[in-house]
């Protein structure tokens, strides 16, 4: 039987501190399990709920994993509580907002596989998003049973960060839950992400005891079709919660400067020691990063990927800022026009 007590759902003093006495007496905390176009599904101590949103709240502002306050009798979502963590990606440049992926995650399982899907640059993007959101990343390398040397992939993944947890697994084995138990205890929330075809659905089924359909992968590039089509919250028998996400082939970054620095600490820390503050780490004299490359302390390919992510982040962040400014000016124009009509 599903345990839907607040503690089991992941409730903590962080959320309780946001409530006032009146809200405690009249409203019910609930956790978002699925977001639809005009409504949401949530879980609470009184059971599953289907809620419509109060005016001023849009489904774009609600993410799976969110804690909300609702009026069960009226089936209304009244308020979204502040998030402990928030996972998003920078794709909504035209609106000035990052796209929400999920909320209140403790651990992000970044899934890849022991074949052509293994891509350090893509993994670093996921790591940057996780680090920026202060979510613990864990890299899961699936299809270990099909590889001649899975340890080689583990070694490559370990080079993508310090003290980074990396596990090579056979997602179809019976001990997946045991291997991942450290992050899946009572009240803990994990999110499962990665590109299509790497076995995310198989891992999700192993963790939750579900039987969602899986898709075969293409032999030429080790990619698969999307099996998961929407984000949703599922209970793990060990007591935790899993947020599954669709495969994401395009993963833009925006406003994640801290996350990029945290993903490439061997570079970002040395950058502060360069002679020039605006050092590009190329041919400038006194470049500490280039000096470390010459001694073998830094992988030159890592530097290339670091600089590429930095450039993309700067451009996307600037674009988002411009879009926000544009929408702000448009809002003022509309408001002024409305005021003139009232005169």
List its traits:
single chain; 343 residues; alpha/beta; six-stranded mixed beta sheet; five-stranded mixed β-barrel
Q: How much beta, percentage-wise?
A: 15-25%
Residues in helices, as a percent range: 25-40%
Oligomer: single chain
Tell me the radius of gyration: 22 Å
β-strand number: 13
Q: What does the model show?
A:
The structure is a single chain. This protein has 343 residues and is of the alpha/beta class. It is built from eleven helices and 13 strands. The chain has helices at 6-9, 13-16, 21-26, 120-132, 150-158, 176-179, 200-208, 257-263, 265-271, 288-294, 300-342, and strands at 28-35, 40-44, 47-53, 67-71, 76-80, 86-89, 99-103, 107-113, 136-142, 165-168, 189-194, 232-235, 241-244. The strands form three sheets. A six-stranded mixed sheet has the order 10-9-8-11-13-12, sandwiched between helices. Strands 1-2-3-5-4 form a five-stranded mixed β-barrel. Helix 4 (120-132) crosses helix 8. The longest helix is centred in the C-terminal third of the chain and has 43 residues, at 300-342. The radius of gyration is 22 Å and the shape is globular. The relative contact order is 0.12.
